[in-house]
Write a structure and sequence with these properties.
alpha+beta, FAD/NAD(P)-binding domain, 13 helices, 18 strands, binds flavin-adenine dinucleotide
Length: 410
């Protein structure tokens, strides 16, 4: 049977493309290689699904770096307001409890997937699960169908919404790159992103599970010193994780590939300089003269980290601040403001929430998401060379690009 549209991948992007096309009267076939639809979507936001955020389109695009402008038309057509209205119409009202990140009011990713599934049923979209597309078919530069392990399906248009490479158990194994490459598309080098990082320093294991609020991380490499990030930092048995690390890992993995290790400076005290810290301790000392150095440090840092700092700077934690040797106090303060950490690895795509890189944007029309190489072939979602930080950016982009691809313009 010939369909107007075949969508490959039942994730956020693919389901949005399928629904958009079907609402406009197209006969749609949605192919999914896993036994069930929306596996990754169900896992988003720790099961709570951070759908999007309240930023304006301009501010949103800026967070994706230089390539962000590619999203202009898609976001104009499907901004966060449009997306919220879309879900509200499906019976999934949304809200922004912190004024920034937008979640379903139910805080349930499952509800989001169920609502999309119900809408696809209402629109008579044919959903075929447990069937992987292995090739795209084209004739004279025009798409004409797909080939799966079992069958050949014909269609006037095909949307590739196969995601990236992160969390492969949730379906994304990079198939879209191979499919697109065979038809002449370029794949920008892919890196795992948004994941914990491993460090050379072993002391971090002593501080695991303790959180440093609003830490500031800076890359200490010539030419990359402008790379910095701020946010909550958590130590692990072999490195660092937490919101600031998830975001920063996007910048670190390409450097790691290039240099083998990436030296960082970590400000553990919310950006305070050494001078400000000396001032701070001077004041506190007057106030809490009877405090040991360890107790004094604990006014700004968790105990485990305070102990490590004392040990690194050879300071006796039980002695008062005044009784420490000046050079040791200086060293301790320097470590608080500029703790050196060296990133030496990560868990790879197995733990990467996002893939950096993908199908080159220059070969895709940003107004339509159509391939500039094969007519009738569209892309949407993470399979393209665009990735954003934590905070609803990647789902918003997946839904917006899925919406535009589903319009099948051009
Ligand atoms: C644990 C986790 C939490 C996250 N939390 C958030 C969050 O809260 N907010 C946010 O904005 N982003 C979050 N992200 C990122 C976000 O989930 C992704 O960017 C987004 O889901 C990508 O959507 P997609 O439709 O492009 O790809 P996917 O959701 O990966 O969907 C691709 C689909 O294609 C299928 N497929 C692949 N190859 C084939 C093939 N050959 N044939 C048929 N089907 C195929 C896959 O099985 C899969 O179902 C999170 C990611 C992870 C891993």
């Amino acid at each position: 049977m010939t369909h107007n549209l075949i969508v490959i991948g039942a994730g956020a992007a693919g389901m949005m493309a399928a629904i958009t096309a079907a609402r406009r009267g197209s006969k749609v076939l949605l192919m999914e290689k896993l036994p069930k639809i929306g596996a990754k979507l169900k896992a988003t936001g720790g099961g709570r699904c951070n759908l999007t955020n309240t930023l304006s389109n301009d501010a949103f695009m800026e967070c994706f770096g230089r390539e962000g402008r590619f999203m202009r038309d898609a976001l104009s057509a499907c901004s966060h307001e449009v997306l919220q209205a879309f879900f509200s119409d499906l019976g999934v009202p949304t809200h922004a409890p912190d004024g920034y990140r937008i979640f379903p009011v139910s805080h349930s990713a499952l509800c989001v997937v169920q609502a999309l599934e119900q809408e696809m049923r209402r629109l008579h979209i044919t959903v075929r699960c447990a069937e992987a597309v292995v090739a795209l078919e084209q004739e004279n530069g025009v798409i004409c169908g797909v080939q799966t392990q079992h069958e050949r399906y014909r269609a006037d248009a095909v949307v590739v919404a196969t995601g990236g490479l992160g969390y492969p158990q949730l379906g994304a194994e990079g198939d879209g790159y191979t499919l697109a490459q065979k038809l002449g598309h370029t794949i920008k080098q892919v890196y795992p992103a948004m994941m914990p990082l491993h460090t050379k320093e072993r002391w971090v294991a002593q501080c695991r599970a303790d959180t440093v609020a609003k830490a500031e991380l800076t890359v200490n490499l010539k030419g990359s010193k402008k790379l910095r990030a701020a946010g909550d930092l958590i130590f692990t048995k072999n490195g660092i994780r937490g919101p600031v690390v998830l975001d920063f890992s996007r910048d670190i993995t390409p450097l790691l590939q290039c240099y083998g290790e990436v030296p960082l400076h970590v400000n553990l005290v919310q950006g305070k300089s050494e001078t400000e810290l000396h001032e701070y301790f001077k004041k506190r000392r007057q106030e809490y003269g009877h405090y040991s150095t360890l107790e004094l440090l604990q006014t700004v840092l968790p105990e485990s980290i305070s102990r490590e700092l004392c040990s690194m700077s050879a300071v006796d934690p039980l002695l008062g601040w005044n009784r420490q040797e000046g050079r040791r106090r200086d060293m301790l303060v320097r470590l608080m403001a500029k703790m050196p950490l060296t990133v030496v690895g990560h868990d790879g795509f197995a733990k990467a929430m996002i893939t950096r890189g993908g199908i080159a944007l220059k070969e895709i029309d940003p107004r339509t998401m159509q391939s500039k190489i094969v007519r009738g072939l569209y892309f949407c979602g993470e399979v393209m060379d665009l990735d954003g930080p934590c905070g609803g950016y990647n789902l918003q982009w997946s839904f917006a690009s899925g919406f535009v691809a589903g319009l099948m313009r051009g």
